Amino acid sequence: MPSKHARRTGGGIAAPYLFLAPALVLFVVFLALPIAYTIYLSTRRVQRSGLGLGKGSVREVNAGLDNYAAALSDASLWTSWLRVLLYGLIVLVLMLGLALLFALMLDTARVRLARFSRTSIFLPFAVPGVAAGLMWGFLYLPGTTPLKGVDFLSASTVLYSMANVAIWGGTGFNMLVLYTALRAIPQELYEAARMDGASEVRIALQVKIPILMPAIILTTVFSIIATVQVFTEPTVLRPLTNTIPSDFSPLTKIYTDAFVRGDLYSAAATAIVVAGISLVLSFGFLRVVKRQAFGESS
Amino acid sequence: MKRIGLVPTTILVLGALYCLFPVSWVVVAATKTPGELFSTATFSFGSGLFSNLADLFAYRDGVFWLWMVNTLLYAGGGALLSTLVSAAAGFALAKYRFPGRNAIFNVLIGGILVPGVVLAMPQYLLFSKIGLADTYWSVLLPQILHPYSIYLARVYSQAAIPDSLLEAGRLDGASEWLLLRRVALPMMVPGLVTIFLFQFVAIWNNFLLPFIMLGDDGKFPLTVGLYTMLAAGANQPSLYNLIITGTLVALVPLIALFLTMQRYWRTDLSSGAVKS
């Protein structure tokens, strides 16, 4: 319902649209248009006539769904999906597990050095992914590693070393989100359980974690979106070892297809497939957010 | 009861040490000369910090300075514009009832779900078509729209700005534009600082977009610059000191900002607004 006064001032009806205009213009130009263009590109291909040398002998033609068929039957894309699936499982379980553990520990009575620990664990949030990759990269590199004798960058270990960079970088932020949610729980809820003689561990498992569930789901969905898109870690660690192929993750494959091999059309189709999978994985997110924040206001 | 305190404290301190470990290693390693980097004990300080810094800033005619200035420009300018756009949009979505409100909100927020590369690649191609690829604009403009900031700005204006105040302003004949500038924005400042900081860090840390957009290393931000240093120097151990020192220098401003602005790093904008 428009406000009476807003209507009377005349500008009131147009005002919200004007305030939204910059965001909407940016949305159309930098989001909607690029997506539409990617979809368009994904249905095109280059056709060469003759030797493909003369002027006009290279033409862009409609390819229908051929690029999608090629992307879906590309074995190297499936290999990179499997790699990212394993990587994602390790990162999600360890990062969110540690974040939850640290948040619960911060929330216990009689914990010492809480401020120091909380700040230190959150600190990697301020470290660029490239810098994190470089620091860990040198800690892994045989010449500069403090742990001589362990090969962190071999074909069988590099995935875990990469996961460690992401866990290091992401635990703090998720810890803070969960800790903030914990702090919002009224203390009386625990008092009753304590009166009944429940241990702190039991309270954590049976009272705190169930209440935290929405926040845990939220951080999980955000983390899924981020891990599906892993790009910085493999790109930064790659110059240090020959065990990371250029199609390590779906995103590095898209980058290589588009900018190294120059095949924009199949890169576009792969990008749409990646977007589709990431959308499917995170579909529940919007519903959770809306129920959480705006359930009562709309 | 003392036993209870020991377990969480130990777990948290171990977590803190894990998180501080690479940063402290970089601090120490940046003080070592190329010889010391491979010979001395991991955590013993070396004697080469100043020569490393001098080498770093002399690298390719001082291009590292340029990368720092560029990063500041991208992150500062982008975060400021992003905060203003998000504030206006969030305020409109929270405080007005108008046709299409929910649809606009859902569409804007849906942007969170779009993977970066799906956008960065066509953005680059579209920028190329109008001759703007490899310019400052190509890195600055795509990072202004930030759906999560709009979401936060909406939550924050809902909690921080009383409807009665806006109504009173309207009765006094204030235009909606004046209400936004003089009433809403000042009341939203604490939340906007948080939005600014999150966006500043996000742009400072962004690698994919400038990596795709830029070819001229004079326009690189630090992340892309450091990566090209690594790509060029991974097989030359004599360059390691430069890269390590560069990493440290790239970290210092953000860590300083992080430690001084701690009270603004909040993830609970709505409850924070009600309390303060």
What would you say this structure looks like, in words?
The complex is a heterodimer of chains A (298) and B (276). Chain A is mainly alpha-helical. Chain A has a single domain (75-294), classed as MetI-like (MetI-like fold), CATH 1.10.3720. Helix content of chain A is 69%, strand content 3%. A two-stranded antiparallel sheet of chain A has the order 1-2. In chain A, helix 4 (75-106) crosses helix 7, helix 6 packs across helix 7 and helix 9 runs antiparallel to helix 12 (264-281). The longest helix of chain A has 32 residues, at 11-42. The relative contact order of chain A is 0.11. The model of chain A is unreliable at 1-11 (pLDDT under 50). With 276 residues, chain B is mainly α. Chain B has a domain at 80-205: MetI-like (MetI-like fold), CATH 1.10.3720.10. Helix content of chain B is 74%, strand content 0%. Chain B is built from 14 helices and no strands. Chain B has helices at 2-29, 34-39, 49-58, 63-95, 101-110, 116-129, 136-140, 147-160, 163-171, 176-205, 208-213, 222-233, 240-260, 269-275. Classes of the chains: A mainly alpha (298), B mainly alpha (276). Chains A and B meet through helix 1, helix 2, helix 4, helix 5 and helix 6 of A and helix 1, helix 4, helix 5, helix 6 and helix 8 of B. Chain A: It is found in: Cell membrane. Chain A: The chain crosses the membrane at residues 12-40, 84-109, 121-141, 161-182, 203-231, 264-289. Chain A: It is a multi-pass membrane protein. Chain A: InterPro entries: MetI-like, MetI-like_sf, UgpAE/MalFG_permease.
Q: What would the keywords be for this entry?
A:
heterodimer; A: 298 residues; mainly alpha; MetI-like fold; two-stranded antiparallel sheet; 69% helix; disordered N terminus; B: 276 residues; 14 helices; 0% strand; globular; disordered C terminus
Extract low-pLDDT stretches of chain B. 270-276
Number of strands of chain B: 0
Shape of chain B: globular
The helix-strand sequence of chain B is HHHHHHHHHHHHHH
CATH class of the domain at 80-205 in chain B: Mainly Alpha
- Could you give the distance between the termini of chain A? 12 Å
Class derived from helix and strand content of chain A: mainly alpha
**What does the largest sheet of chain A look like?**
2 strands, antiparallel
Helix content of chain A: 55-70%
Task: List the chains of the largest interface with their residue counts.
Answer: A-B, 107 and 108 residues
